[in-house]
Design a protein that fits this description.
The chain has about 160 residues and is mainly alpha-helical. The protein has a domain of about 60 residues. The chain has six helices and two strands, in the order ββαααααα. The chain has a two-stranded antiparallel sheet with strand order 1-2. The chain is elongated. The relative contact order is 0.06.
């Protein structure tokens, strides 16, 4: 029977026959079409779509050029997304970018001659200490700006 908390027992089949299998608790790998599209769109677009069009239009000087810039950035993002999806189909371990970098630099394919876990470690800590907090700060500021703006406009009108 499967527990109702979203976790499924995983059986380790690498034991010798006759030994009882070990069970570890892991998340179920289940993402449907709607939740997958929502996850990707939310990650790719984020709050920048509400904040940056004004700056792009001001710096580009024309609507046409700003649309070209947006299309170019979209193509670059598509290349990144396709690369990550290819890595996800090749490497069957959970851990995302950390595991991809660890696999690339560990030297498993070159007979153990690699620089080890240092690049993956640095990427993980950079993400935890810099990238995620900065991203959450920008999203919070954007959210606050658009939530408070109507109240400010009403107060200013009186």
């Amino acid at each position: 029977t499967e527990p109702s908390n979203g976790h499924a027992p995983v059986v380790d089949d690498e034991k010798t026959p006759g030994e009882p299998p070990e069970q570890a608790v892991r998340l179920k790998r289940r993402v449907g079409l709607l939740s997958g599209v929502a996850l990707i769109v939310g990650t790719m677009i984020g709050s920048g779509i509400f904040v940056s069009p004004k700056g792009v239009l001001e710096r580009s000087g024309s609507v046409g050029l700003s649309l070209v810039v947006w299309a170019g950035c979209g193509v670059l993002s598509l290349f990144g997304a396709l690369s990550l999806s290819e890595l996800g189909t090749m490497i069957h371990k959970s851990g995302g970018e950390f595991i991809y970098i660890l696999t690339a630099f560990s030297g498993e394919q070159r007979g153990g001659k690699g620089i080890g876990a240092v690049p993956a470690f640095l990427q993980a800590w950079t993400t935890v200490l810099l990238l995620k907090p900065a991203s959450l700060g920008i999203m919070t500021l954007s959210f606050a700006k658009y939530v408070v703006l109507p109240a400010y406009l009403v107060a200013k009108a009186h």
